[in-house]
Amino acid sequence: RLEATCGRARAGLLQTAHGAVETPAFMPVGTAGAVKAVTPRDLLDVGAEIILCNTYHLHLRPGDDRIARIGGLHRFTGWHGPILTDSGGYQVFSLASRRVLSEEGVRFRSHLDGQAHMLTPETAVEVQARLGSDIAMVLDECIAWPADRDQARRASERTHRWARRSRERFVALTGGHQTGDVVVSTPGQAQFGIVQGGAHPDVREWSARETVALDFEAYAIGGLGVGEPAPVM
């Protein structure tokens, strides 16, 4: 909900299954389920309203199945406010020497023990459903800067195809259909689509239109912070 404006700046209120977040928000990073060196009480004391946890790392250790069995991330972390989880895509992108990208998804080897894993748009949705975050991100293809227009377009088109698959799986899970062995730890989880396109305005505009057409709960601006100079970003 839009609360106030000042020029092009906006202040809003984002409602989630575990409470409200005032935007813009400072979101501490709790990669493996804990913000290093501080407790959940400390986070509340400094005014934090939402934290970010890392799907890739939690999937590998201690495992999303185990977290689901104890009631989801909120019980696992001791943080009872809103939680956002990424899809794991950026971590796989950053481990380029350990992964192979295909239309199906990303095959990679764990940085912990070298074991092979397959991350698809559907499994990224399922892992985050088990984790029980309030906001789940779709799996996208993140490309490094510099990337020419053709590279950015191809990655954006694949991201869109993956986003469609992600949305279909999410709707099936949250609607109570085809759940199989997937535990939905947080009813009311929201799914965010991600806009890609690198530093190419026309590709970004195309990506934004196509992503919004899939009717996610909200949308993230992706494809930045991957090496481009600050003025380009």
Please give a quick description of this structure.
The protein has 233 residues and is an alpha/beta fold. The chain has helices at residues 40-45, 55-60, 64-69, 73-77, 89-94, 121-131, 149-174, 201-212, and strands at 2-6, 9-16, 19-23, 51-53, 83-85, 99-101, 106-109, 116-119, 135-137, 190-195, 218-221. The strands form three sheets. Strands 4-5-9-10-11 form a five-stranded parallel β-sheet.
Give an overview in words.
The chain is an alpha/beta fold and 233 residues long. The chain is 33% helix and 21% strand. It contains eight helices and eleven strands. The chain has helices at residues 40-45, 55-60, 64-69, 73-77, 89-94, 121-131, 149-174, 201-212, and strands spanning 2-6, 9-16, 19-23, 51-53, 83-85, 99-101, 106-109, 116-119, 135-137, 190-195, 218-221. The strands form three sheets. A five-stranded parallel sheet has the order 4-5-9-10-11. Strands 1-2-3 form a three-stranded antiparallel sheet, with no helix packed on it. Strands 6-7-8 form a three-stranded antiparallel sheet. β6 (99-101) and β7 form a beta hairpin. α6 (121-131) packs across α7 and α7 (149-174) runs parallel beside α8 (201-212). The protein is globular and about 45 Å long. The two termini are 27 Å apart. The relative contact order is 0.12. The mean pLDDT is 94.
Features:
21% strand, globular, 233 residues, alpha/beta, single chain, three-stranded antiparallel sheet
Topology:
Layout (H helix, E strand, L loop, with lengths): L1 E5 L2 E8 L2 E5 L16 H6 L5 E3 L1 H6 L3 H6 L3 H5 L5 E3 L3 H6 L4 E3 L4 E4 L6 E4 L1 H11 L3 E3 L11 H26 L15 E6 L5 H12 L5 E4 L12
